[in-house]
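Title: Comparing notes on inverse folding

I've been comparing how different people in this forum approach sequence design from structure. To keep things fair, I'm posting one structure and asking everyone to reply with a full sequence. Here's the target:
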């Protein structure tokens, strides 16, 4: 799962949101710099990743995509699944996606002192280009995919990844719609255990 899904699954607690976002950037000793709900957010990030990596529907999606994208299938599937979340947003939230996105950007900026310098630099671009809302469009997804293509170390077919999304959309979305409610329940249970929403 990519940025939108991680934030959606964080509930409304600002520090959980920040920790969940930082989960991709914090390793080992870095965690000593955090406590409380930010640390719980990082833990939630790892729960999401583990649940995703072991889910049968996700494995099926990766297998479908692997024939087109090889070793980059997992990376691209994260982006595709954010697209499916944005596309189906009203199934999972009563809050409009644009309003949700703005609340996350606001929370990140309010708590930016918790972000490492290398991550703070993302924040203005995230808001300006409205990452979360744009995940719901082919244009926005293509922009994210081409960014991955520029950074990729190995030869790949990422330049064709939007074409592949369109070709495989029905099959991949069917897997997502099975997977997402189960992941949401897992995250809701974790937050409830911690006395959070």
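Reply #1:
Here's my take.
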């Amino acid at each position: 799962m990519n940025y939108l899904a991680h934030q959606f699954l964080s509930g409304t607690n600002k520090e959980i949101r920040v920790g969940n976002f930082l989960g991709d950037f914090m390793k080992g000793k870095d965690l000593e710099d955090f406590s409380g709900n930010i640390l719980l957010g990082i833990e939630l990030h790892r729960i999401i990743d583990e649940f995703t990596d072991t889910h049968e529907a996700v494995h099926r999606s990766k297998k479908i995509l692997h024939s087109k994208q090889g070793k980059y299938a997992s990376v691209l599937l994260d982006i595709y699944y954010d697209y499916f979340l944005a596309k189906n947003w009203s199934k999972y939230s009563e809050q409009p996606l644009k309003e949700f996105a703005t609340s996350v950007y606001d929370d990140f900026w309010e708590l930016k002192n918790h972000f490492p310098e290398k991550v703070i630099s993302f924040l203005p671009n995230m808001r300006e280009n409205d990452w979360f809302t744009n995940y719901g469009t082919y244009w926005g997804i293509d922009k994210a995919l081409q960014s991955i293509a520029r950074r990729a170390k190995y030869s790949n077919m990422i330049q064709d990844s939007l074409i592949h999304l369109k070709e495989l959309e029905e099959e991949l979305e069917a897997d997502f719609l099975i997977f997402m409610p189960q992941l949401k329940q897992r995250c809701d249970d974790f937050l409830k255990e911690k006395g959070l929403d």
